[in-house]
# Entry
Amino acid sequence: MGDSISDPWLWFLARGAGFIALWLLTVSVVLGIGEAGRWRSRVIPRFVGAELHRNISLLAIVLVVVHVVTVELHVGEHVAWTDAVIPFESRFRPPWVGLGTIAFDVTIALAVTSGLRRFIGARAWRAFHWTAYGAWVMAVAHSLGTGTDTQARWSVYSTAACAAAVLLALVFRIASGRSWGLRVRIGAILVTVVVAALLGRWATAGPLAPGWAQPARTPTPQIHPRLGRYDRVLIPSHRPFLM
# Structure
């Protein structure tokens, strides 16, 4: 498969679908925060915002499926189909592929429970939807820990923009929570900022630092002996190697 003329396009489609899915998941999370906070808009009625939130989430799931399928078709000898649903079984960077798998499973479960909301009850639905925040964090960690474009400047800016959007939306939502006491709001903001700082610290010390391939548990045959990065077997031969 490595010599197939379609391989570069499969790889570009896989990476592109993954990045766009992360952007859409970010938009979905921000819209979900807005719905929870009952943000008002004179331009967009609330029911339109709810439909937009649902449709963007479904489109994100479709793109994640495209991402999984194209990765499997391109590097099938390193990634099994079951890795898409069973976490931490991958031969390639199992911790970070596993986080992406959990994020995907949770996102599917969120979509299913949204469709069954009238049967499971609003309270149970809201309680389960708190997992959306964890799924988004795991999706970001998956993108940083597994992606071959992680150290590219545009990728860093893209991920930082996604993180900033969710962080600002969360802080605004917590600060404006009328039913929460002052101590609860301050504590929630501190927890949010600490989690964001830890994620940023891990990114700069790990995926964004040189020599990430070995600690990420990349299979030894795919690591360049001198440069400590992937071998080009996983990506098109004309693709710049960043990690």
In short: Helices lie at 7-36, 46-74, 94-115, 117-120, 122-129, 131-146, 153-175, 182-205.
